[in-house]
Specification:
With 470 residues, this protein is α/β, with parallel strands linked by helices. It folds into 2 domains: 183 residues, Aspartate Aminotransferase, domain 1; 273 residues, Type I PLP-dependent aspartate aminotransferase-like (Major domain) (Aspartate Aminotransferase, domain 2), CATH 3.40.640. It has 16 helices and 16 strands. A 7-stranded mixed sheet has the order 1-2-3-15-16-14-13. Strands 4-12-11-10-9-5-6 form a 7-stranded mixed sheet, with helices on both faces. 47% of the residues are buried. The structure holds pyridoxal-5'-phosphate. Pyridoxal-5'-phosphate binds next to helix 7. The site of pyridoxal-5'-phosphate has 15 residues, from helix 7.
Length: 470
Amino acid sequence: MEKKKPYEKLLNCVASSEEITSGNREGLADFLNYEHPGDVLFTKWKCPPVIEEGKGNKIWDVDGKEYIDCICGMSTMNIGHGDPRIAKVLSDQYLKLGHWFDFPTPERLELVKRLTEITPGDYKKKVRLTLSGSDAVENAIRAARSHTGKTHIISFYGAYHGQNTATMGITGAGSMHRWYNPVPPADHCVEHFPYAYCYRCPYGKEYGTCDMQCVKSIDMLMSSGQTSLGNPMAGVNNVAALIVEPAQSSAGYIVPPKEFLVGLRELADKYGFLLIFDEIQTGMGRTGKMFACEHAGVAPDITLIGKAIGGGFPMGAVVARAEVFDDLAPGYVVTTYAGGALGCAVSNKVLDIFEEDDLIGNCARVGEYLASVVAGFKEKHPIIGTYSLQGVYLGIELVSDQKTKEPAIKATAELVENMRRAGLLAQLNGYYNNRISFIPPLTIKNSDVDEIFAILDPLVTEIEAKYGVK
Ligand SMILES: Cc1ncc(COP(=O)(O)O)c(C=O)c1O
């Protein structure tokens, strides 16, 4: 098999690009020469900036160029960059106690109690702290399988749940698999189903008259004896858990109708499997509620938290019905740094800041303003096929034709590059790479919304003219 050499191409691009400034060029060359650069950065921009500094909702690259940050460390910096309250906590905690293994400390005990209180579900909970979102997903899957004694996991196409050995199979996003296949990991006990992506319903239905076919199809296959999920006629159910993002983030900030999560809860109850909500990106206030599933009034059996809880510090958590963890023997999971005093102290402070600054209330309020701005923007711009919005969780989708919904793939990539040039960073993604997610800090104000759309408006007009979208 011919070996792919993706980095040579990138290095050439970095070396030959005329617009890149010297510090960024040097930084990217070092990145490619000295690191395995991962899979994501160069899929967003041809020559991404090397970021050096951040304050509030602004970041600066190594050559001093300023950007409005609508990526927010992939939704980790929900409290904004450079909050001195976090800096103080980190320094105080380090002087008090830097680390003491995966064992209890007062900071840790405070955090786990608070996590059981803020997560959805009116039942006794227990927590497992982790160092990342992927760790949280992996721990949840292991616990679900161990607790139920079942093997199978239901997941969704377009889902992103992480990229470690255990989570790779659960992740449905093909772009994440492309460098790996056919190399393992492969978890054969995972079944993927289509997500409630109503604008492009895989069942060809229209929301409102679809009878939630995306939920029904799972029910139909679960109740038949013709899949590996089980055979109710023979009294066999192989499904340990269904894992779902309450809104699909890496696939383009796609918000499903409420009935989707409600229907999945009903399926979990009907067939007796655990329902896991991966709130690693949707969680922590961005949608105008602490967790996105609260909009549907549905609670899972396991909530997964990551990203924003750490305020930039690597933290994650599995918050489960107590009995799910009670079945696991002590020593089932251990990680040197999990639940470390520094991370827990920071996470507690992040939760304080959420309260002190009323970040969720702010998101809901600014979200209302944003809703009116985006609605007007779509009216004005025929290239906007659709958008999803909950609080300040915003994904827009670009099409070259409103009727055929042809994805405007080239135009979207070009727009994201032009936005970068104009000092606005947002995330290129989507099932067809024709969506842009806006992920600002939750400290966002109406005036920030105005600033973002003032930059966007002429750029979108220019792209529409260039690609003849009317
Ligand atoms: C929904 C979701 N789950 C899991 C993960 C994996 O988290 P991490 O990158 O911290 O391992 C991500 C990361 O983007 C995510 O968005």
